[in-house]
Amino acid sequence: MLSEISFLAEKVFVHRWPHDTPLWSDEVKKKLDETISKNSNPKQITIKENIIQIQDFEFSKLIKIGISVPFFKDECRMIFECQFGELYAHIHITVKSKEYLEIFRKLKAWKSEFFPNDSNK
Question: Which domain of life is it from (predicted)?
Fold first, then answer.
């Protein structure tokens, strides 16, 4: 059983999804952009069971989780839909560190343990 996965991601992008969900306030958009999406510094990612924390934001109700290593790239990517508070989001995480394969392995094990019925195997 995995207790926690923690790593730095070089690139994270958060956007509202699906489009028929409540709009984000300008304040929320600004905070997400400054802290995550448009901030070029590595972001701290911490995963505990069915919660993903990125910097100071906690995301829950995870669905449609995709984890991959793209062809011809030394990186790992994770994409998922989730909620934070009452708002909905789609998140793209890219890890380019030399440990990307180990992080990929841990993420796949985490997904199998906590989301065995997720449609995106």
Answer: Archaea
* Beta sheet of 51-54, edge-to-edge order: 5-9, 43-48, 51-54, 57-68, 76-84, 87-95, 11-15
Count of structural domains within the chain: 1
Q: Is residue 40 part of a domain?
A: yes
Contacts 24+ apart (CB under 8 A), 43-46: 43/8, 43/9, 43/12, 44/6, 44/8, 45/5, 45/6, 45/7, 45/8, 45/9, 45/12, 45/93, 46/4, 46/5, 46/6
Contact, 2 vs 113, CB < 8 A? yes
For residue 19, report the phi and psi dihedrals to the nearest 5 degrees.
-70, -15
Q: Assign residue 63 the CATH number of its domain.
A: 2.30.29
**Domain extent at residue 14:** 5-114
Whether the pLDDT of residue 3 is over 90: the answer is no
Q: What is the pLDDT of residues 23-58, one digit of tens each?
A: 999 999 999 999 999 999 999 999 999 999 999 999
User: Does residue 48 belong to any structural domain of this protein?
Assistant: yes
